[in-house]
Amino acid sequence: MPLDTKRAIDLAESDILELISNGTEEGREIDYKELLKIGSDGERKEFLADISSFANASGGHLIFGVAETDGRPTAIKPLTITNWDAERLRIESLVRDGISPRLAMEPTAVAVPSGHVIVLRIPRSWSGPHMVRFQHSGRFYSRNSGGKYQLDVGEIRTAFTSGAQVADAIRTFRQTRLSAIVSGEAPVRLLEGPKIILHCCPYTSTALGASVDIRKAQQQPALVRPMFDFGHSPGYNLDGVMAYSPERAMSGFGQSYFQLFRDGKVECVDSQLLRPKEGRGRVMPSIAVPGICIASLSRIFKLFRVLDVEPPAAVMLTFLGVESYTMALDPMLGYGSSEIDRDALIIAAEIADSYEPATAATIMRPIFDTLWNATGLSHCSAYDAAGEPCKELRNYIQRMG
């Protein structure tokens, strides 16, 4: 289907006309509506049922402004939209308030002669099932080749079980990888000492047979980069594609690496930044730690977009060997914080609902707040009162690329 090959914002009239000329039928992944009607309670409920049905199935496109006969598109029927920003906000607000848990959606207005066609791209959700919550009642919907249908009790139970299985698979992956790193079974030999470990696990990677194009990834040296980047060269290994920065003073060892697994999961490990340095002791640099993590996550998001990996993804940060470390609130001196009371900080995952690189800092802020809490502080001081990265952090992220 031509819509799947483009970003939603890049869709054009030619893509709609191609659906019509090909006679692309309604079904599991596409539905046509001549009008967008969300004025009455019944219309809003039907709209929410359509949206949730795509999210609870395999995702797809809901298209308004296209006439159909027996499920086949026949003609564009332009919609008159005087203020698309206001209309988009109205749609997003209705979906946000009427479907639980919240789901991702990309509304796009495609310009056509005399008006617009509205395309709603709804990706498959991995955090469902999603319920239409409207007028004190709740219903679950999904889709098959015949279109939308309401789930029965057994199907609802299966849907909840599937969601739990995704979480279990991601949790197991993290535990397995941490055990491998601790036991010296990382893809490159690392010196003993503290480590920063960033995992990014797309939900799609938990599906049986999931894979990404590792050849395409290997051709992206600007994105397949270790946290601390010098002397790296992406290459293949049994697990997928790996790049590492070598130890300057120890031949055969690495100090930082990036591992893309064949199913799309990513592991970044650094063993250099937190090493005790003369005159500084066991401290965590309050700008450099969030800075290298955010910069690395931004690159991962860019790589996922190149590889057409669908969101969402679990973002997880772990610190090993950090007992008795303090937070260096000044770039050269730790003060005002307590010592970390354990060797391993395994911080709860945050979920990335999109792969916009600019969102990396926002996604990771709760993770850094937890890290700061572990040193006796109330919140991450690298963000300002509005929750945005401070100037020093922004500059550091920019330098790290």
SSE sequence, one letter per element:
HEHEEEHEEEEEEHEHEEEEEHEEEEHH
How many domains? The number is 2
Q: In total, how many beta strands?
A: 20
Could you say which structural class the secondary elements and strand pairing correspond to? alpha+beta
| Helix run count | 8
The major pleated sheet works out as: 8 strands, antiparallel
Task: Please bin the fraction of helical residues.
Answer: 25-40%
Overview of the structural elements:
- With 401 residues, this protein is an alpha+beta fold.
- The protein has two domains: 150 residues, Schlafen, AAA domain (Methyltransferase, Cobalt-precorrin-4 Transmethylase, Domain 2, 2-Layer Sandwich), CATH 3.30.950; 240 residues, no CATH class.
- It contains eight helices and 20 strands.
- A hairpin with a 2-residue loop joins strand 12 and strand 13.
- Helix 6 crosses helix 8.
